[in-house]
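Go through this fold for my students:
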Amino acid sequence: CLPTLPDKECIASMYNVCINFETFTLSNSDHYIFGHWYHSNIIELPFDIMACSTIWKGTFLVFLAVFMLASVSAQFPRECATSEGLDSKICCPTNKLTGDVCGGPGRGSCVYSSHQDILDHCHECEHMSVADFDDRVYWPSKFYNQWCECEWPFAGSACDKCAWGYYGDECDTYRLATRVNVHHPHNREVLERTVLYLDWMKTNITEDFTIATCTKSAMTSEEGKVQPCFKEVSYYNYIVWIHWYAAAYYNSTITNEFNHFSSGFIPWHRYFMLQWERFLQEVGGDPGYTLPYWKWIGDDNCTICTEELFGVTDDGGFITEGSHHFKNWETLCEGHDYIDDGRLCDPDTNKYSLSRHPGDGPIKHLPSDIKLEWTLTWPEYDRYPYTGDSNSTFRNALSGVMDAFNGMRLLDSVDMHLAGHYFMNGSMTPRSTSPNDPVFSVFHAFVDMIFETWYIIWGPPGLSSYPITGAPFGHCRDDYMVGVFPPQTNGQYLVQSSELNYVYEPYDSAPVPSPW
């Protein structure tokens, strides 16, 4: 790791982090990240077992034995989207593999969550002026108060899926996934698979889930009879819709967001990218696939916007006929508030052609490497009031509402993550519907990598940095993430990526050998 370190220490190849195998701590160690050394204080590692094996050009990979989180989806399973399911508020589907509810013994069981339980996972919600009208407040109690609780390593709405990193009917195959850099020539094949699977996601209907096109109150007649308004969608439109559902303003005057501009921004999107990756695996029939990342920092153009990859655009900003993918794509939900004419976004309305004009808007250049380095120097994840006004915080520096150099809020411009969205100047610019542009997938994988890098340097956020109470509704550490079902908390995803069974390839590493 460093020439002065004893032989008992070895390198975690992902970040060249010095690990001491006797104490299992990062002992005042330096970290070589993005070409520079950073110094951290002692951080206790949440691992009991470690092993160090030689791979690739004499570097080492640390395999960590950790307890992993389960995979979940969003909105609701088809089996629950019925009058009976909504009347009973029970969403415990039958597992198709076992024929039992929630999979039965050894897989999962149907559990009840009281109103108080929901309140305990919805801090600050009582202060929300539209709590009685917005189904996202007290999530998911407006729809269901019973759902499947799965035994390890099973997951999903019917315990019919596997925890992140596990595969097979019995979830007994394990793989530590590595997200790779799209700029490396040896990763070209992974990138080509990515654009192919993304294109397939747009035309393949998800068999498991549906989305609502009206609110719960609109589904209920004056006589109390429930008339569901759910619709099936493609895998890709489902991804866009879920992001819109959590991000859309209630209306033009009540501008709350459940996945941006507060503490939950990073964990919500970490879950979101894991679910997106799972869908790509399912559509491609490729359980060994892992989402790559695009290092857009310092990339002064959309270098992945080629005919073979994410598409070239014409003078009007539309994908050209010569592009291999995405040229006939239509977007959804653009310009649609949460409540618009009394209804939620219908994927078959508000449709426009996919567009982008990289660098042809208010943001002419993507952020530089020096901006990234300064972003990583802020040790505090977040602080009161846990909004865009929380100066000198990593979360606001990464989000792009804070000047990474001086720690003060930006008033007339944006930077980092938001600058990347604005640089694309098209379908990826409106926050709530930005996943309409498939570039979002590899763009946000790198946003997640930046958080992972910060976590390695500074360790997990403390309670003052990521609070139990005090953040806007939906953003507190133990709040349920809006749109995610079965429910998961923000805090469950505010962990090191290895606890979720994936790591990141560094920029200059050798090819990652496939375990498949």
Remarks:
- Residues 112 and 146 are 4 Å apart (CA to CA).
- The longest helix spans residues 265-284.
- The two ends are 30 Å apart (CA to CA).
- Confidence is low (pLDDT under 50) at residues 1-69, 509-516.
